[in-house]
Amino acid sequence: MAKRGGGKGKKNRGRKVRVDIRRNKQTRARDQNLTQELLNDEIAAEDVNASERFSGKGQLSRRRTVLAEDVDDQAVRAIDTEGTIEGRITSFVGLNCQVESITDRRVYECTIRGILRTIARDSRNVVVTGDRVLFRREGDDYQGVIERVEPRRGVLSRNSQGREHIIVANIDQVLIVASAAEPELKTNLIDRYLIMAERHEIDAVVCINKTDLVEPAWLQRIASVYGAIGYPVVLTSVETGQGIEQLRALLKNRQTAISGQSGVGKSSLLNCVDAGLQLETSGVSDASNKGRHTTRRAKLLPLQDGGWVADTPGIRQFGLWDILLEEVDGYYIEFRPFIRYCRFPDCSHTHEKGCGVKEAMEAGMISPRRYDSYLRLREDDTFLWKNPARGQG
Ligand SMILES: Nc1nc2c(ncn2[C@@H]2O[C@H](COP(=O)(O)OP(=O)(O)O)[C@@H](O)[C@H]2O)c(=O)[nH]1
Ligand SMILES: [Mg+2]
Ligand SMILES: [Zn+2]
After folding, report:
1. From the first residue on, what is the mean pLDDT of each consecutive set of 10 residues in the chain (393 residues)?
2. Which ligand 1 atom is nearest residue 281's CA?
3. Residue 188 falls within a domain, yes or no?
4. Ligand nearest to the CA of 371
5. Residue at 155 is within a domain
6. Closest CA relative to residue 157, chosen from 149, 167, 147, 148
7. What's the 354 CA to ligand 3 centre distance in angstroms?
8. Quick one: 63 and 173 in the same domain?
9. Structure pTM?
10. Which ligand 1 atom sits closest to the C-alpha of 237?
11. Radius of gyration of the chain from Cα atoms?
12. Residue 127 is part of a domain; what is its CATH number?
């Protein structure tokens, strides 16, 4: 980590940062600040000429002082911000990004400053959908170059061949869409999305669509489980219009990632919320794109009333990034108050005697359905990715 420079400088003023220059990508720790890594890499890239970089000389390690500045208490590349525009990445078209200007919502076609690409620790995460960036207008029309990526928060990522792939950044909330029927209601899937949201510390809203196809009392019972835990629940139907107004209010002025199985009605719902979107429905585009590269990239759709929605890939392609088996109990948020009553500190809440979670379930304080979902999750290893860097063998 960077050391703070002398305390004299005012906040957000340039400061000197001493950093290690290292090119060994294998040894990076998970918790290291991404931006700081970017900075480290940038110095390395500036320091090493091209022939060295491609000669495969292996690890390079030395120290150097560079200029950085603080944004939200994170160090970012110091640039001359004069003449730059604040924007938000809404999508990728080939190698170009579409960037929506924050001030006037105009869309610019931007390339990425070469240095940002060269330095990237992981070429897939240089710039991601949802990123806040500073870009400079260049050329005619609405074209520009991205100069800097601001620190990310609320990141959704997945495991792709053992490495983190960020799907979308700066998400305020995840809207988890399920359908009451056709396809049948899969609450275990809702639970998995909830775990993902908890892991990434992003708010979650549960939406159960196609209420017109089922008996209301049955659905109420299931939905109330999530309401009782503390998640907002909205029951919707594109057919009857139920819940659409409520959904529209939930999405307004927020950056929302939409998750859920193909065919549950995500596109139909969004079309109802904002008629300007005109998304393809019938789950056709989801199905035909399965496994294609394009589906990995989320796209931000600006809403007329303010805010954005990001369509994200289905959970089957969505190996959860970096969740350990022994952490899962904490992501079932209603288990948390009871874990401390377990007799064994490493209680798995499956077979142990004196288990606080099981006792709470038996006393009616935890839903048996949620407890069962927890058990099933523990059995399904494929769902969890074991990060070797965190000592899981
Ligand atoms: N009965 C009923 N069908 C719906 C509802 N919402 C969507 N559908 C249908 O479900 C199918 C899949 O919808 P789509 O929006 O493409 O789902 P997506 O794959 O999640 O985007 C389409 O045939 C829709 O007409 C609803 O509320 N009720
Ligand atoms: Mg769709
Ligand atoms: Zn226990």
Report:
1. 38 47 39 41 35 36 50 68 92 85 91 76 79 92 92 80 80 95 94 88 96 97 96 98 98 93 92 92 57 58 91 54 80 97 96 97 97 89 51 36
2. 16
3. yes
4. 3
5. no
6. 167
7. 7
8. no
9. 0.77
10. 27
11. 23
12. 2.40.50.140
